[in-house]
Predict the structure.
Amino acid sequence: MDENKKGGFRAFLKRKDIEISWKRYFIDAMGAMASGLFASLLIGTILSTLGTQTGLSVLVDMGGYAKGVAGPAMAVAIGYALKAPNLVLFSMLAVGSAANTLGGAGGPLAVLIIAILATEIGKMVSKETKIDILVTPLVSIGVGVLLSVLLAPAIGKAASAFGQLIMWATELHPFAMGILVSVIVGIALTLPISSAAICAALSLTGLAGGAAVAGCCAQMVGFAFMSYKENKVGGLISQGLGTSMLQMGNIVKNPRIWIPPIVTSAITGPLATCVFRMEMNGEAISSGMGTCGLVGQIGVYTGWVNDVASGVKAGITGMDWLGLILICFVLPAVITWALGLICRKIGWIKEGDLTLPV
């Protein structure tokens, strides 16, 4: 391809707002996918659980409807993040449904990959013909569904197999894998990528899901309490019930502030897997949510309820509750605060290093 053709294609991509980059596809798109999951599968699970526990069938029905549109919700969210024109965006409803259904347990990963491809191809043809109202949805849906048929089952099986491998390894080596899963998922939660989407894509539940919850809580609750001196109650709530990603700018300036919560996750992870045997058997997305809206804890509780109902678990014990409270709240707060104090005394963390932007 000569330079003129190369330049012409680049100009075409720029005109169509197609940016082939890590940020666009694996930060923006994945983060949006997690929002789509939250607004469908996750909130549906919470509603269904509340309905089951309170006997209100209307909540169970609401939850069922919400969970039923998880695929379309993820795909539309991805299309929105990729700045898709309206006809492309609305076409993602069908694409998301096909990819999520055919992807099985690994549906979220299939939706991520296929919705990105279908959206970008749809953007290429958008407004290029006089019959755009027919061509754009036909191409967007046709490409998306065809890719779903061809690729989604394989993507889903691969994602599910990898998630199963992680969960199997955690059962086999709970101490080492407790550390590894807790630290990695916790770091992912604070980075500008989606730990929730990663856990959902890998269907990460069981002991590995419990370790993931521990790692996320270590980051969120840890940063909230460690930075209380600088950020007071507002920072405590925004980080503890919101996201530790708020500290990302400060981490770039001084990476040492990340040491206390990471070390804490390396402690609470194996405690969750080896001592309390804390499993997260709710929806896999909950494994990567930590204390954000208490979704991680609701996921653990939902898993307990499901296990009791299926006969896997005799009942919810005091040890279960103790483990949940210690791993998710008490230990992250105490250990990270103490490690942060040490870092302050040796000069690794200085005044203002943890202050959140106004």
Q: What stands out?
A: Residues 13 and 19 are 7 Å apart (CA to CA). The radius of gyration is 22 Å. The mean pLDDT is 93.
